[in-house]
Amino acid sequence: MAELRFGAEGTPEAFRESMAHLVSGVAVVTAGDPAGRPCGLLVSSITSYGTDPASVLLAIGCSARTYRALEQAERFGVHLLASDQLYLAEVFAGHDENKFADIDWQWDGHVPRISGAMSYLKCRTVMFTPLSDHAIVVGEVTSLDEVTDNDPLVYYKRRLDWHLNSTGGTKRATPPPGRDTR
Fold it and tell me: Domain extents for the chain?
């Protein structure tokens, strides 16, 4: 693999800062671990991969606690978040042992399904390829529902509390009462 070389002006931090200006959607990705427990994490590196068959592509950090479960899972769930679901983003971006303790969810086969997501896609893993410090995962969408017309929650400038509104503008989301978004 080629080594990334930075000139006098560039550093790894400059690269991260540059990428912070790329607006991306956020999703919670869930799977069942080999012991049958639910696990999940927040991802911002996700995109549609194809339409025939419908598929998604995402990147998962090798250091993520959900990494091994996703590596071994035949199926996983993708929950696209709406602007009023910042609390779910915070839960799944965190390091709590039981992220599912205080949220509404149920099993969809072997996939933990979070209730109320803007959109839920159940996927069959078709590729899991470690590359550098992440793995590239491609999943074929086997079912999709709960598509709503809500404004999406997005990741921008290293913050999760932004959303695009239907008029095309970007603004910070309003956190639920009692939640600090700093």
Answer: 18-150
CB 47 within 8 A of CB 56: yes
Does the pTM of the predicted model rise above 0.90? Answer: no
The shares of helix, strand and coil residues in the chain, as percent rounded to the nearest 5, are: 10, 45, 45
pLDDT in tens, 103-131: 999 999 999 999 999 999 999 999 999 99
**DSSP letter string, 96-118:** -S-TTTTS-EEEETTEEEETT-S
Architecture of the domain made up of 18-150: Roll (2.30)
In what helix (H) or strand (E) does residue 86 lie, and over which residues does it extend?
A: helix 86-93
35 Cβ neighbours under 8 A, 6+ residues apart = none
SS3 144: strand
18, amino acid identity:
S
H, E, C per residue of 40-73: EEEECCEEEEEECCEEEEEEEECCCCCHHHHHHC
